[in-house]
Amino acid sequence: MNVPSAAPELFTWEFATDPYPAYAWLRQHSPVHWTKLPSGVEAWLVTRYSDAREALADSRLSKNPEHHAEDAGGKSKTGIPGERSANLMTHLLNIDPPDHTRLRRLVSKAFTPRRIAEFAPRVQQLTDDLIDGFASRGEADLIHDFAFPLPIYAICDLLGVPREDQDDLRDWAGMMIRHGGGQRGGVARSVKRIRAYLAELIHRKRDGLGEDLISGLIRASDHGEHLTENEAAAMCFVLLFAGFETTINLIGNGVHTLIRHPQERARLQESIQRGERALLDSGVEELLRYDGPVELATWRFATEPLVIGQQRIAPGDPVLVVLAAANRDPARFAGPDTVDLNRRDNQHLGYGHGIHYCLGAPLARLEGRMALETLLRRLPDLQLAVDPDDLRWRGGLIMRGLRDLPVRFSAV
Ligand code: HEM
């Protein structure tokens, strides 16, 4: 990889296509870097692994946007979905202890590893149904036809959203991410619709609790405390939006990386044919490290003066931890720009670290594994249908993913 010789320009089209050379420069020359984001907000970018890991677990960095120095009058420009909608403020990614501790404990009682394990056959069926939808065509856009619908149907099923409503949620969630790059009005409208729908659904479920996750959330109690209806709606909302674009990108970026690294892909395909699991498991982790869905962890704000690396951070300053840069830090990973699906000692930060560590990681791993395994098994000669340079990456701040992924394969 060619590391630029001078300070690179960030957030350009070239940067969105391949941010890694710029991150290598930042890690070397300005590891905690003050920059102006495309929205006009200024923030610190933290790019070294050791600083990133520390910052993610630092309780002096708050998740509450009210700590943003520029937040005067409640007009934050951070673009956190739902942040200014009072009803959705109480979600996990926007709050600190003790509220965070209480809510996370409650949701963990419903969102259990057992529930996810029992959900595996449904994810397999969804995966197969979606592939059935395009397998005979010999070509597809893997984002539109596969990676986009899979996680939204999966989380809807898990939550207990009736099948007849799932396409509405898919469309609203789609609008939320398509409008991500600056059109706040579109995002706000979609957030409002989703919020109203979830509130109504939760209300309805109270009259007849079932086995689904929403019923589990309503039932969950901690020392006699339950989630309020607002908290339950905010929780469902965060499960929907935190697990949606991330999983799309896990599949999209993952397939892209595999296609671009044919030797590693062949190795994985052979191991899948032999019915083995180990390389698939370590491989999904390596794909998350190498080109993961979450480029920057969500916003944090200093509540008091602190030092990251050797940089002084003032109270009220926003801090963005660049997971994608930390995960390629040569001080932590041997050969960080190489894909090694069998990599050992792979404590990447793709799911974050500390108290906000991804709640949905078991579900994401399940979906990622099944999606990649099934695609490679059923469409073994899957190839890009366009020149790699013509692929378009989304330009959003937090997430890293492709807009589309045109592929071709032998029709089956
Ligand atoms: C938090 C990554 C899938 C739900 C996070 C964080 C990261 C992350 C980096 C921490 C953000 C921060 O500290 O600022 C990912 C990746 C995924 C994925 C890479 C897919 C490959 C999911 C899924 C769900 C989910 C499928 C749920 C259905 C959550 C929730 C949080 C979270 C609720 C907030 C946890 C808290 O604040 O306590 N995720 N995520 N994620 N994720 Fe995921």
TrEMBL record:
Family indicated by similarity: Belongs to the cytochrome P450 family.
Residues spanning the signal sequence: none
Protein name: Cytochrome P450
Region of interest (Disordered), ranges: 58-83
Cited PANTHER family: CYTOCHROME P450 YJIB-RELATED, P450, PUTATIVE (EUROFUNG)-RELATED
InterPro entries, per the entry: Cyt_P450, Cyt_P450_B, Cyt_P450_sf
A Pfam cross-reference name: p450
Basic and acidic residues: bias regions: 58-74
